[in-house]
Description:
The complex is a heterodimer.
Chain A: E1 4-13, E2 16-26, E3 31-36, H1 42-49, E4 57-62, E5 65-66, H2 72-77, E6 79-83, H3 94-98, H4 100-104, H5 109-122, H6 127-130, H7 140-152, E7 158-162, H8 170-187, E8 190-195, H9 198-204, E9 207-212, E10 215-220, H10 222-225, H11 231-238
Parallel strand pairs in A: 3-8, 3-9, 6-7, 7-8
Antiparallel strand pairs in A: 1-2, 1-4, 4-5, 9-10
Chain B: H1 2-40, H2 43-57, H3 60-67, H4 78-102, H5 106-114, H6 119-149, H7 162-170, H8 174-201
Amino acid sequence: MPLVEFRDVGYRVDGKTILSHLSFSVEAGETLVLLGRSGSGKTTALKMANGLLFPTSGEVLIEGRSTAEWNPIRLKRRIGYVIQEVGLFPHFTVAENIGLVPKLEGWSRPDRERRVAELLEKMGLGPADFLQRYPRQLSGGQRQRVGVARALAADPALLLFDEPFGALDPVTRRELQLQFLELGRNFHKTAIFVTHDVSEALRLGSRVGLLVEGRLETIAAPAEFRRAQTEEARAFLASLED
Amino acid sequence: MPTDLANDLLELTGEHLVLVLSSMAVAMVLGVPAGILLTRRAAPRKWLLGFASVVQTIPSLALFGFLIPIPFIGGIGPRTVIVALVLYALLPIMRNTFVGIAGVDAAVCESAIAMGMSDWQLLRLVQLPLAAQTILAGIRIATVATIGTATIAAAIGGGGLGVFIFRGVASVDSTQILAGAVPAALMALVADGGLGWIERRLAPA
């Protein structure tokens, strides 16, 4: 059974079609990258995986169960979510930010502290230096690392990334991409990753799905995606050659 | 005579404080939840903020006059005054609560929801702490205004420092007027300073 399955998903709002006939599945352990231009519906699709949005037709299944049937809070707590703006809580320290979901889930304080330190270590942020800092005392790259650590905190079954590295400088972005790959190898996490950067898509995805105006045009492993002949895929791949 | 004045001053200042504190307590208990409600429900937004704005435009003496004939809340005395003061204090408190919460970074709220916070947790752990400074600014503005407006309470038998002022105006006695105006002004300054200090301490770390 796939961890995530989109079945003929459509989304219409105010008479506008955002997504139509979207079908794909994500197996445990893989990273599916949804690639597309702004407005192609990729963020909307991502938000359907943790029940921030619900399809207006078709259904999204997580662990075989429709998101409409899940308890909305339970579903969200099982899924880590990272967005470009990071959205760290400005009034919480790094430790409090990362430890939030474990705390909501009722972990004991020592368990939480251990987990937070372990995650900071993994993200390359020395716990001694960073635990008590506030988000405004961090650089963009450090903030995004804390965002990823926060998403990983309660050991979620699935991770959702919405252009998490989009606002970073190229060097930091590259570092975080490599770190992301390493995390994938070490944790065998399942992830859906949204981006408009084709090189990022090919680097990080075990499969790449190309969204065009709310439809899934191509979905293929990176090597195969490079040979795709559709117009939109060619347009994206052309940007690699610059 | 000076001891009479001192006794009056003490008593009327006490009355004034009671008027202000009870009005502010009621206004906060109504205004903060009303402001929160406005962030959750779009429908009453225009209606409630509109109502509170209209109340602000009514001259205070006229509002007291309107309230006197109303059964239960009206009549002569401090109760009517408190009702009027609450109505005036409602707008700044309600509006600042609404604006403060609505102004919390959308990305922060979205990640809170995406992390599986309930609406109550979102409010208590994220929105209220981040809006606290703005909410308190509304309370401070309302308190300072209420201290001033409460001097008119004397016109309808509500007591307070306004008694001095009305008495002084009637007998063309500027000592009496000052005996009412100076303590009221000091009270407003102290409230402004004190609440301003708390406000700055609430600045997000």
